[in-house]
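FW: tagging you since you asked about this chain on Friday. Here's the raw sequence from the shared folder, copied in full. Didn't touch anything.
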Amino acid sequence: MQELATLASIVAALSVGVISPGPSFVMVARVAVASSRIRALATALGMGAGGAIFGAAALLGLQSVLLAVPALYAGLRVLGGLYLCYLGFLIFRSAQRPLAVVGAGGQDSRRPFGAFWLGVTTQVSNPKTAIVYASVFAAFLPVSFSLGFAAALLAAVFLVESAWYALVAFLFSSPGPQRAYLSYKSWVDRAAGAVMFGLGLKLMTSAAKP
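HL: got it, structure written out here
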């Protein structure tokens, strides 16, 4: 019973952070409007897998390692920031390229695994998320817990992350948002690329702060 209450507390705390807009939200929304619902859902599952990776790292004591070696955390922020800037540059560069959007119920000839991997890499590129997971786990985890509890916790993390981004995928892959995207593609891509690039720069500059 105690483990169930702990699990509920951790899931509730993480859910608040998951719905906060950030690089992951921008990426899922753009894949949804620019590609297909299938690829957007694959990206959402990738976000869930990335969250589970952070959860597993937190269970293994990631926070203690990063606090003990500040240079490691700073390095991860720089690398993550560079990757987000790279993604932002790619999005911005594609602003003028014509695009044939697949309808909400349509199929995309491209395999969804690439979209899944994009979701994973976008999620894990932000080490601040790792700190959030580690902090929440440190605050709520008991001193000792069963293997079953750990497995249930990681499954819950995956479901929470995937469910939220799946909702984003469904909303933005609807005909209305896709038509709006086609009408203002160059401006939307420039804005999304600039936001992603800005988030990357913010992450890199924060590496210089104590």
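FW: The chain has one domain: 2-206.
HL: agreed, and Confidence is low (pLDDT under 50) at residues 101-107.
FW: great, closing this out.
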